[in-house]
Every structure is written in structure tokens, then in C-alpha cells.
Amino acid sequence: MNFKSSRLATAVVLLPILYLLVQMLPSLFFFLFAAVVILRVQYEFYLLFFRNREIGPISIGLGFGLLLSFSFYRADLFWEGRSGPAVIILSLLMILILTLFLFRDIKTTLVDSAVILLGIIYISGCLSHLILLRQMARGSTLILFLLLLIWSGDAAAYYVGKSMGKHKLYAEVSPNKTIEGSIGGLVGSLFAMLLAQRTFLPIFTGLDFIWVPLLVGGMGQLGDLVESMMKRSAGVKDSSALIPAHGGLFDKLDSVAFAAPVFYYYLLWFKGQGIPIAGF
Fold first, then answer.
1. Alpha helices of 172-237 — where are they, by DSSP H?
2. Which run of H or E residues covers position 147?
3. How many angstroms separate the Cα of 270 from the Cα of each of 80, 116, 140, 264?
4. Residues 158, 181: contact at Cβ < 8 Å?
5. Is 244 helix (H, G, I), strand (E, B) or coil?
6. What does each of the 280 residues of the chain score in pLDDT, given as a tens digit?
7. Which residues contact 108 (CB under 8 A, 6 or more apart)?
8. Residue 31 contacts by C-beta under 8 Å, 6 or more apart in sequence?
9. CA 151 to CA 12: how far, in whole Å?
10. What angle (nearest 5°) sits at the alpha carbon of residue 225, between those of residues 233 and 183?
């Protein structure tokens, strides 16, 4: 089986499973599922820097990442009670204190602390917006729509870039990506949105058909470039080999990490989507 066939076969197997998990799981169990996925992505992110799997700094980051995800799930206890920022501030203070007493090399303490905090905010903070999306009206459908836009754009960019790409998009970061592929990706996101609007999510009208593909698709592409930059900095091709022919969860959700917050705030500010708070 060649590479393209392997990617397609893996997607065919995983997408129905993902659909059932997002659509059918009750709120609490969706949070637990999302938390496990986020922790795995955060772990893969940390391995780009902590190559020897240092248990101390990785555990600190994962612990506070889980706390941040929980604060999104129980926003009524944290953010609505004005104590949400405490999660981030206390995480920073505890990371610095623990680094002070548990550092591996005093010459790397500044970078170690920055990487741990970046993993919490970039991975857990951004991906936890999926939990907020799930709490909106028709939340599971919105998540599936977001993934459809991202992965349709990703597939379109891949095939357009392979067949028509001539002009490099950003060779220093991702040598195989092309301008033609990037444009094809945005067009793929637009077609995915048109399909969704006509079949299962008719809430978008007018300028939504311009802004949503541009914002979600564009941010998804930027998220992919950012992860490529980090992997090139670390000297690795994939964040892990967890998913056959696709790499790790970080490789699959790098675009979602950038797109999910933008999509959530677009819905909140411009579409008036309410946020019923989930409880236990």
C-alpha cells in the first residue's frame, strides 16, 4: 500500500469513530476524551524539546495543562467566577518555583520554563476551545464542521500542491508546501462549508461564506506551518508514529489548535451562539 492509500485508509477508519465519539458522548465523557487527546498532543509537543523524556518537566506541564482544560469545562467555577486567569498565573508561578528546585541544568532553566508554559497555553489552551464549542448549541455538529473544514482544506492543499504546485509557500519552514496548494486548501474549505450549509448546518449566510473559510482555513494553514517550524527546529519529521501514515496527534491537530479558538470567537461575537455551561 502506497503512502497516499495508507493516509486514505487510516482516515476512512478513524473518521467514523471520531464522529461517534463527538456526537454521542455525554458532556462529561466528551471532556474526559478531549482531555486525554490534549494530554497526548501536549506530550508529543514536549518530546520535541525534552528528547530524553525527562519526567519532571513533562509531568509539570501535563498536570497544569489538564487543570487548564478542566477550567474550560467548568467555566462556571473558574472564568465566570473571575478566577480563570488564576489557572494561568498559578501555573506560571508553580513552573518557575519547581524549575528553581528541580532544574536539570541551570543553563537551560529559562528555556525549560518557557517550553513548559508554551505547551500549556499553546496546546491545552487552544485545543480546549473544542470543549467550549461542545457546550454551544449544536456543539457536536460545530466540532464536526470545524474538522471537516480543516481536513478538507488539508486534503485539497495536498493534492493541488502535488499536481499543480510550482511556487514555494515558505521553503525555510516547509519545503513541500506551495502557494497553489495553499489556495487550493482555502477553496477546499469553501466547498466543505457549502456542503455543510446545505446538508447539516444551515446557520451560515452572506459574508460567512467568505470569512469562515478564510479564517478557519487560513489559521489552520498557519498552525500547520508553526508545527513544521517547531519540528524542523527539533530535527524531526513527525511528532510521533501513533497514527499510521499520518504521524502523531500533534501532526493531525496542529491546524485545529489554531483554528478552534478563532472559530469559537467568531461564533460567539458574530453569530450570537450561546454557551450553556456543562456541569457534572
1. 179-199, 208-212, 218-234
2. helix 139-164
3. 21, 34, 19, 10
4. yes
5. coil
6. 444 445 555 556 666 777 788 888 888 999 999 999 999 999 999 999 988 878 888 999 999 999 999 999 998 888 776 777 888 888 899 999 988 888 778 888 999 999 999 999 999 999 999 999 999 988 889 998 999 899 889 989 989 999 998 899 998 998 889 999 999 999 999 999 999 888 888 888 888 999 999 999 999 999 999 999 998 888 887 665 565 555 678 888 999 999 999 999 999 888 876 544 333 2
7. none
8. 69, 70, 73, 131, 134, 278
9. 13
10. 155
Q: Name residue, grid cell 499536481.
A: 163
Beta bridge partners of 168: 178
- Cell output for 29: 465523557
pTM of the model: 0.88
Strands (DSSP E) found in 87-131: none
